[in-house]
Amino acid sequence: MSDTNHQENTPHPAADEVVAPVETDAPAEVNRADEIISKLQEEARVNLEGWQRARAEFANYKKRIESEIKSASERGAHDALIKMLPIMDDFQRALDNIPEDLKSHPWVSGTALIMKHFDKVLEAYHVTEVDPVGQPFDPHLHEAIGMDDSGEHPSGTVTATMQKGYVSGDRVLRPALVKVAQ
After folding, report:
1. Is this structure's pTM higher than 0.70?
2. What is the pLDDT of residues 92-102, one digit of tens each?
3. Are 81 and 122 in contact (CB under 8 A)?
4. Does residue 156 fall inside a structural domain?
5. Domain boundary among 110, 125, 140
6. Interacting residues of 130 by C-beta distance below 8 A, sequence separation 6+
7. Are residues 106 and 132 in the same domain?
């Protein structure tokens, strides 16, 4: 016989073995699968809650940072305006003391326009003047620099404003310098 016939007629050693059916405990496997599914569902729930919490924390962080940036910007603008206030005072004093013969001079008109521009800047930043004559003295808004013996106003009332104060919202940029009735 040839080699090829010999190989064909030779039985495979595994052919004599009988394959037994695999026995499974179906309810136990189902229980294990249910346990795995339950564990995975719990893990998914925990991950979802963590993700939602992280998302909410990030949204709060973003709002806080935006608020802090806005506040810092306003503080910076207010700080710059505070430094401009003495210049505005000087302009106002100059305008208040113009001799009559120079009031119609174009240079004076130009100077008055500069003062109006300063006022517009203050308005843009919601800055208001504090000129409290006739009002009760408020140590948060006013700084007393003298007493007045005037019988015209009740005690504790502002009788004169020596220098205007300025506020923006709740922030006092500069208290008004005032005289107070005794």
Report:
1. no
2. 998 999 999 88
3. yes
4. yes
5. 125
6. 141, 142, 164, 165, 166, 167, 175, 176
7. no
